[in-house]
Amino acid sequence: MISRFAKSFVAIVVALLLLATITFLHPPSRAYADPWSGALLGEDGMEKSLHTSKPKPSAPILGVGGGVIMPKLGNATAKAALGRATWKLLHTMTLRYPEKPTQDERDALGSYFHLLSRLYPCGECASEFQMLLEKHPPQTSSRRSASLWLCSVHNIVNKRLHKEPFDCAHLDDTYDCGCGDEPLGIKSTTDLGGEDAAVGMMRGGR
Ligand SMILES: Cc1cc2nc3c(=O)[nH]c(=O)nc-3n(C[C@H](O)[C@H](O)[C@H](O)COP(=O)(O)OP(=O)(O)OC[C@H]3O[C@@H](n4cnc5c(N)ncnc54)[C@H](O)[C@@H]3O)c2cc1C
To answer: What EC number(s) is this enzyme filed under (predicted)?
Structure first.
């Protein structure tokens, strides 16, 4: 007759063996399901084929054209920190934007800035930014034009806030993310055709 202790021991060993078999057959996956679309994202949480998905048939982008959504941001320290982080994101983005974007990519960048001007978490800044975009629409025809356009727009904000202008010839060194991208290759402001050339380009260029 088997003792109660022996029975429990055998049961535990069997349970452990079962668990080990299940773990071996189904190794844990770091893939996860997108809670909105239900689509399964790959290991590391990144879709494997970032650039292979075809653009969807052009649907009108809703919500791009409306007014400012966010309230006033009263805290000056928070406003400045938010600004620095956002400029960093925006400049890095335009400096990684394609050299020869497709129409879809151009639309995406233009819409991004217009949506930002509605959703930027500092309402009074967003309001100013909306007026700025109306006067100087986003330049999206290439990495160079987008980067220089943004640099000039940032300088317009700098001027309004009584800050020193930034020399757009230093975009490459200031925003070198170590990503290995082709630099813009602007060595001096004369490469831009003079001090205000970028602003001029914004008016006349694409
Ligand atoms: C869209 C937007 C609108 C804003 N509107 C307002 C506003 O209405 N009122 C307000 O008080 N604040 C506003 N801000 C925040 C403001 O622009 C600054 O971010 C904040 O005052 C902090 O300034 P900073 O001196 O630290 O440098 P930032 O202007 O934040 O710049 C950060 C760094 O970027 C670099 N830089 C500076 N100029 C350029 C340029 N032209 N091109 C590339 N790099 C540059 C410099 O290295 C600088 O140290 C806005 C920010 C954004 C993103």
So the answer is: 1.8.3.2
